[in-house]
Amino acid sequence: MRSVGLTLGIVVLASLAHAQAPVVEPGGVVNNGSYAAQGVAPGSIVAIFGSNLASAVAVSDTIPLSTNLGSVTSVTFNNVPAPLYFVGPIQMDAQLPYESLAAGAASGTVNIVVTTNTGTSVSQTVNVLPTLPGIFTLTQNGLGQAIATDNNDGAWAAPTGSIPNVTSHPISISSGHALVIWCTGLGDVTPTIADGANSYNPDGSVTVRKTVAQPPDLVVLVGGVQAQVLFSGLAPAYVGENQIDVLLAPNTPTGPAVPVQIQLNGVTTSDQVTIAVGN
Question: What is the value of pTM for the model shown?
Fold first, then answer.
């Protein structure tokens, strides 16, 4: 994830775990942006909830992401190791492997198993869909202020001065600046990419990777008004994080908390995720 996305999209939970086998909650694997529980998409960042998942908090500091971290030996989906962002006693954040589904399958259920230095969890099933979008938010629970930025200056599209230590101002309709929506769960990308990797090459160049899902299947609404999608793909520096760049329509409603939503494959993200919009 991008640095602010990693900081704000991950809940660091420091409870101590006893030396017991890990337990994954039934239905405990959700989209890390929206916390929607109806399914997760290949390549996306997922949150995994349970107990005794790790003996202590550990955060990855490598790219590609490792498939073991701290006391966690592995997290597998259908026996495919998942790259790990963060592990803690009651929550872990990981990338769902692109190849977790059987070859040729667009959707289905997979089994998750967590193995630590204290034991192995009982397998739980996870519903995998081709896409399941979720927008990252300041509150880290899929509600409230979206992590969405002005592409021109990087400022958050939030009321000016509303977020400590972060530059913010409403996204201006008349400025012509693109709005960048930071999210996950948009599914496969082209060209393809290895699990745990970002889009930077060894020589420092970047391979631009667009999502297979594009308009008209992919729709972004701001205040219920359709925005123009300029780009939908992977955020180059981060693993499993998507960015959608849009231009707001002239008739977009203004205000400090205007809903921003993604529609894709019959799923519409919550209208409780908002940005600030100005003239």
Answer: 0.91
